[in-house]
Write a structure and sequence with these properties.
- The structure is a single chain.
- Helices cover 42% and strands 20% of the residues.
- With 242 residues, the protein is α/β, with parallel strands linked by helices.
- The strands form two sheets. Strands 1-2-3-5-6-7-8-11 form an eight-stranded parallel beta barrel, surrounded by seven helices.
- Helix 1 links the parallel strand 1 and strand 2.
- It is globular.
- The mean pLDDT is 92.
């Protein structure tokens, strides 16, 4: 298994005011995060791509991504147009995250998976993250993603993460070692819950947990809620790029 260097993303909230995107991007950049990730259906803007443009304009090194574009709400062609513009405008700092939330188009799950595959095929020359929570989406991610985000409940046991990765390994074959594996941390520091999506303890203890998880499972791209950036920044400083 190839060891990928750590990198860290901050996931913005859905309710951020339109004039807050630039400041949030500067905060993420100043705290050492690799990416700021914009959800779909954000308030106050027409699309996550519009918010991403604002973040790119306000920062210099921060990468900006979507987390994630809900493909049932878009056509592959419209996503490709947005991505082409952002790729040029950002100087290569844009990453596309794709997923399939409950459909608003009446698509069946199988149709959603096919739409996801078509959208990934329509996009060129940007890194693609696919958020996977079921076998159909995992198959598309194994074939087409650069980064596979494991969409599991934060309270899930590590054994569930390992089982999902075993399935991904079978699906990806020779591509597996080239895939960057990602997982979101839902709570940092203190939480009433325990599970693979919860990080507890001091910055040194949290960093040790993430190192152990990478050694065991290969997960190297860790994302947190943007509200946790300050609490998580000491972990980022210890691990980023290592």
């Amino acid at each position: 298994m190839t060891t990928h260097p750590f990198r860290f993303g901050a996931v913005a909230g859905h309710d951020l005011p339109p004039d807050g995107w630039g400041e949030l991007g500067r905060r993420a950049e100043g705290r050492g995060f690799t990416t700021l990730l914009v959800p779909d259906h954000v308030s106050g803007v027409q699309s996550p791509f519009a918010a991403a443009v604002v973040v790119v304009a306000a920062t210099t090194t921060l990468r900006v991504g979507t987390y994630v574009v809900d493909v049932p709400s878009w056509t592959p062609e419209s996503v490709a147009r947005e991505v082409a513009g952002l790729r040029a405008f950002s100087g290569g700092r844009f990453e596309l995250g794709l997923g399939a939330a409950p459909p608003v188009t009446g698509d069946t799950p199988a149709e959603q998976v096919r739409r996801l595959a078509r959208t990934a095929d329509a996009v060129r020359d940007v890194p693609i993250l696919i958020a996977a929570s079921c076998s159909g989406v995992l198959r598309v991610a194994a074939e087409k993603a650069d980064t596979v985000d494991l969409r599991l409940p934060p309270w899930c046991a590590e054994a569930q993460v390992a089982a999902m990765l075993d399935e991904l390994y079978e699906l990806a074959g020779d591509r597996y070692d080239h895939l960057e594996l990602s997982m979101r941390v839902a709570a940092v520091g203190e939480s009433p819950y325990t599970g693979a999506g919860v990080l507890m303890g001091t910055p040194d203890q949290m960093a040790a947990t993430l190192r152990e998880r990478r050694d065991k499972l290969g997960i190297s791209y860790v994302t947190v809620d943007a509200r946790s950036m300050d609490d998580f920044a000491p972990v980022v400083a210890r691990l980023s790029g290592t």
